[in-house]
Design brief:
450 residues, alpha/beta, Carbamate kinase, VC0802-like, 8-stranded mixed β-sheet, 5-stranded antiparallel β-sheet, 14 helices, 36% helix, globular, binds aspartic acid
Length: 450
């Protein structure tokens, strides 16, 4: 029995939905279908989720909401018309989109999430109706009915572990269930979404809850490549990855799968496969606990930009008990998370993502650190990228770092910082952002082309 999730680009038009119908029909094990909101039909199109954000903003600011309502309703209507879906589903969808503008604004911390979730929710209704009219005994299930109960953290929900037991009851239903991705309900019944792209998380949760044999995640690429195809010409595709390798790659910019989507499937030992809606016969990339093919130290190279390093130096830092704790305490008090912390004898660097920093926060950090710790040097280094080479088998190979560093040296790229976790699943190089692409090319060539 399989859980199958379709991303927005697979659901953007009637042509795509016809492929989806055929994929679901071609395998009776595909019993649980998790869907995103309609995505872009072409590069200039707008995702329904983004249109809902614009609608929300207009509503909250007291602006004219009608053009937004009209555009979103017309988007579903055109899919319905092209598919020839009849019945009451389209009027349900239109009423639901319109009714968002009746929600309370004042003090409603779930308003934004409720607007956004409407994209997935209405798409699931539409797809269930389409399936039912085309030979699949299908049923739309709201996350509340499915038992997806989440923490009350707007736009960043987490599943309450007790939900799994409830989700398991879905196994007793005999229809093909169409479940909207991206959101759950809180214990008090509020709509609360996962972070953006979170339909992948729903798929994984359902797969874990029903103890699926496989979680199939359908998108618009033939699986995962060893490096970004926009940077490397025809990179090799990866047939199999471990959960840990995927987690590392997803962290550093492989956006094919949401990085929080692995955990539920991993804990429940459900293998995952990334497949292409436009090429469903391609085997895709399988994500498993143990790879069947081993031996190559590096499976993929990922890079992500927009990092800042807070560099702190103080003579005899190593003798000052509690220095590191005090630095981290200041960050914690300001609500800032850090990503990495490479250190020297008398210096430490805290790597943070730019999106969690503002000018005010940087000033507050500088001020508080200077007052508390009197460092000799304290400065923020901007425009940094992280480059990760990933592979579980690295721990059995000597010289992987040397090989990568050599490639970077030959390409004239300075390594700003370097870090490797004890699990040896990845090695991280920090380079200047304007050298990120050249660094990927150099390392790809070293590990995959020579
Ligand atoms: N529709 C949501 C987004 O665009 C969630 C998803 O597609 O997974 O972020």
């Amino acid at each position: 029995m399989k859980v199958i999730k379709f991303g927005g680009s697979s659901l953007a038009s009637a042509t795509q939905l016809t492929k989806v119908l055929n994929i679901v029909k071609s395998d009776s094990a595909r019993r649980f279908v998790v869907v995103s909101a309609p995505g872009k039909r072409d590069a200039n199109d707008t995702k329904v989720t983004d249109a809902l954000i614009a609608y929300y903003t207009a509503y909250k600011n007291g602006e004219d909401i009608r053009p937004h309502q009209k555009w979103i309703i017309a988007r579903y209507q055109s899919i319905c018309d092209e598919l020839g879906v009849t019945g009451t589903v389209m009027s349900d969808i239109a009423a639901d989109i319109t009714a968002l503008a009746d929600l309370t604004i004042e003090g409603n911390q779930f308003l934004y999430d409720t607007f956004l979730a409407a994209g997935e929710n209405n798409n699931a209704k539409l797809i269930a109706a389409y399936f039912s009219e085309n030979g699949i005994k299908a049923r739309y299930i709201h996350p509340k009915e499915a038992g997806i109960i989440v923490s009350a953290e707007p736009s960043n929900a987490r599943l309450l572990p007790s939900s799994y037991e409830k989700i398991n009851y879905l196994n007793t239903l005999d229809e093909t269930l169409v479940i909207p991705g991206f959101f759950g309900v809180t214990e008090t019944g509020e709509i609360c979404t996962f972070s953006r792209g979170g339909s992948d998380i729903t798929g994984s949760i359902i797969a874990a809850g029903v103890h699926a044999d496989l979680y199939e995640n359908f998108t618009d690429v033939d699986g995962i490549y060893a490096a970004h195809p926009g940077i490397i010409n025809k990179p090799s595709s990866i047939a199999e990855l471990t959960y840990r390798e995927m987690r590392e790659l997803a962290y550093a910019g492989f956006s094919v799968l949401h990085d929080e989507a692995l955990l539920p499937a991993y804990r429940a030992s459900v293998p995952l496969v990334i497949k292409n809606t436009n090429n469903p016969d391609h085997p895709g990339t399988k994500i498993v606990a143990k790879r069947s093919v081993t031996g190559h130290p590096v499976v993929g190279i990922a890079a992500d930009g927009d990092f800042t390093s807070l560099n702190i130096s103080k003579y005899l830092m190593n003798r000052e008990v509690g220095f590191g704790r005090k630095v981290l305490q200041i960050l914690e008090n300001l609500g800032i998370r850090f990503e990495h912390m490479p250190t020297g004898i008398d210096d430490m660097s805290i790597i943070m993502r730019n999106r969690y920093l503002t000018d005010e926060l940087e000033q507050a950090i500088s001020h508080q650190l200077t007052e508390t710790l009197q460092p000799d040097v304290l400065h923020f280094e901007k425009d940094l990228s992280i480059l990760m080479i990933v592979g579980e088998d690295m721990n059995e190979h000597i010289g992987v770092t040397a090989h990568a560093a050599n490639a970077l040296a030959k390409a004239g790229i300075n390594i700003e910082m370097l870090s490797q976790g004890s699990s040896e699943v990845s090695i991280m190089f920090i380079v200047k952002s304007d050298q990120e692409k050249a660094a990927i090319k150099a390392i790809y060539q070293a590990f995959f082309e020579s």
